[in-house]
Design brief:
Layout lengths: L21 E7 L5 E2 L9 E2 L5 E7 L14 E7 L13 E5 L5 E9 L9 E7 L7 H36 L1
Parallel strand pairs: 3-8
Antiparallel strand pairs: 1-2, 1-4, 4-6, 5-7, 7-8
């Protein structure tokens, strides 16, 4: 005969660790910015020239499918620019060209092969407006406009006074 031995392990199976996603890097297309957001004190204020960005993200997972592939999908949203999440995809970066000059928050979620969804990773940053769109510039535009109106008013008043003086001398 054949002797069969079966060993059963009755210990509880540990659930896999929670899926975590992280923003890895933020790059400007002009090459002036390359940030690792996990570093404390990473710059969060961007200039107007740095308004074309690539944001890279990742979620390390070690549970391969039957072919040995680890499939992780991501969806993202740029709060302050987009209202809805993107569709799930395997892309690990997003490009943004000319997002608005304001406070923005980049959100990314990951989903693994088993359907587990991570909590969103968030990176908050601000794109400062160019100099000609700042409140100081608008105050200057307003002062220039009112100065122009005042000059036109004074020139017109002086012309009317001269004309009035000509008419009085003719009478």
């Amino acid at each position: 005969g054949v002797l069969v031995s079966i060993a059963l392990d009755w210990r509880a199976v540990r659930p896999p660790p929670p899926l975590r996603v992280a923003v890895r890097e933020i790059r400007s297309h002009d090459g002036t910015l390359r940030v690792d957001p996990s570093v404390a004190g990473a710059p969060r204020d961007l200039t107007a020239a740095q308004d074309s960005l690539t944001i890279a993200f990742a979620a390390p997972t070690f549970q391969p499918d039957y072919r040995g592939r680890t499939i992780t999908e991501y969806r993202t949203r740029l709060e302050g620019y987009e209202t809805a999440w993107t569709e799930w995809s395997e892309a690990t970066q997003r490009d943004f060209t000319n997002p608005p000059y304001r406070d923005l928050r980049f959100h990314v979620e990951a989903r693994d092969l088993n359907g587990r969804v991570s909590t969103p990773a968030v990176f908050a940053f601000r794109i400062a407006p160019p100099g000609w769109l700042t409140p100081v510039a608008f105050a200057g535009y307003g002062a220039l406009f009112f100065s122009g109106v005042l000059v036109i008013f004074r020139l017109r008043t002086a012309a009317l006074r001269r004309r009035n003086a000509q008419l009085e001398s003719a009478v």
